[in-house]
Amino acid sequence: MDPQGSSWLATGRQALATGRWSEARQAFAKALDVDPTPEAHAGSGEAAWWLGDTLGAIDHLQRSYAGYIRLRDPLSACHCALELFSMCFNSLGRRVVARGWLQRAARLVDKHGLDELRGWVTLMAAGNPEDADEAERAAHEAIAIAEEVGDADLELCARSQLGACMVQRGLIEEGTALLDESMAAALAGEGRQLKTVVVTSCNTLIACGRVAEFARAMEWVRAAQGFTERYGCPHVSTVCRTQHAQLLFHTGDWAGAEEHFTAALHIGREAEPAVSGEALAGLAELRLAQGRQEEAAELVRGLDAHASAARVQAALLIAGGQPLAAMELLSARLRQLDRGFEDPVRPLAAGAAGCLERAGLLALQGEAAVEAGRVADAAASADALERLGRDTGFLQVVADGAVARAGALLAAGAGGEAVEPLELALAHYRQLSMPLGVARCQLLLARARTGASPEAAVAGARAALAAFEELGAGRHADLAAALLRELGVKAARRGPRGTGLLTRRERQVLELLEAGLSNRAIAGRLHLSLKTVEHHVSSVLSKLDLRSRAEAAAYAVRHLHPDGSVDDPLDA
Fold it and tell me: What is the C-alpha to C-alpha distance for residues 58 and 298, in angstroms, rounded to an integer?
């Protein structure tokens, strides 16, 4: 090889070893200019992968694979095939293509006696199983091979995969023990490969996130901070980055959640719809919680066929005043689960993770029934959720069931009876480190106590409003402020100053309030449902600290400008 090319290869290898990904990519690019060797392509592919350029990584690794085959180097070619399997499966969701690369790697191992890679082929099969039993069998086999050949990286990755499989089956204590063990050893550097931290970290996040072990997952995210600062985020695949974003959303770091949802969409920009759809649906759920309903709707437009979007689409229907349509959508998805419909990306989505999906659908079904005035249906959803909580023992499902029961009781006019289940849910959400759930319970408790204890109701609503504002949960903050106004308490929403205080739609509603139109007339003018207009009017009153439509009309006369902007109420 040309000496200059060899020098650039050495520079690239050194940069890879120390996590200087951009430098590595530049060095390998210069090596490729001199001589496009398989090694230079392999190095470029690894650097591109760490930098989030999945398509670039795959292109280089395919070239590297072909080059090693021509050079009759089956060991290096097999390494490339295994990397290609992982990228196609986890970042792009291309399961058919991924299976092809895994099969090719297995054939190379068998044909050339590559025993040092047999355990890795087995481990990859454990992450791409047809059923849970096969997944666990493959993970056990990989562990046995790792111990026999003394491969610490393989052992840690395989134990982590086994832990994820066990958690997926509902064996939470046993599975998380293996995940914890693997994470501790990987972060301590027991393995020699940086990707061992990636594999164990992603297994931990995905497994814990899908059974609501949020506090455990966040503790490991914090423990991995040193690795992240030195090498970058270990959640390199689309699936793992999406789960990281979901974890941050549930635990209250919404700015971080947005960052990781966006990164997941960037990494998986050419991913299969089932993969990218999960990230889009997650970002839409965040937008909806922030009160940015139109943006949420745009994000899930065209995702009707994807299970990951069903819940946020139903929530949008409820927010838009169409609870019966939401109930139909949720019932259809629940029937799919009953028929054993599985996640096309994660074939083990049934079991423990499937229980959480079912719980989320049932919880929304109860909310939709309350909005539609169908109290009996709301109670039936609560019954189903409570049974699911008893069967699984998952605290989130138990909490969701208690909230659904309270919602049905409130709808039936039995607010006093709703206090006990809400207090139970509040305790569980706190234990799970789920601040949005905590604040929603506080708001419902305030509503339940309005008759018997108005002072406690005001205190609870204020606490909920403060929590929603802290999170940036605009839609829920509007509801808390509205309840405080019902209780005779002025409750201005905090928000950005000036024209950003009201959304474009809210400014349109304010303009029509100034003109004296009724809610029904506004609905007709803007082609919205009456329920949606009522929500916008409530939001306008809340954000501008106004008590009535008449005050809103008067405010508009003084502060609404011809260009649609609105003066800041703090300056008014």
Answer: 30
pLDDT digits (tens, 9 = 90+) for 170-213: 888 999 999 999 999 999 999 999 999 999 999 999 999 888 88
Give the residue ranges of DSSP H helices in 472-518: 474-486, 504-514
CA 563 to chain centre: 38
The matching CATH number, chosen from 3.40.50.2000, 1.10.10.10, 1.25.40.10, 1.20.1090.10, for 496-572 is: 1.10.10.10
DSSP string for residues in 267-306: HTTTS-HHHHHHHHHHHHHHHHHTT-HHHHHHHTTT-TT-
3-state secondary structure of 550: helix
Assign domain 1-113 one CATH number from 3.40.50.1260, 1.25.40.10, 3.40.50.1360, 1.10.1040.10.
1.25.40.10
Q: Where in the chain is the domain with CATH 1.10.10.10?
A: 496-572
Q: What is the mean pLDDT of the chain?
A: 87
Report pTM.
Answer: 0.79
pLDDT in tens, 368-424: 999 999 999 999 999 999 999 998 888 899 999 999 999 999 999 999 999 999 999
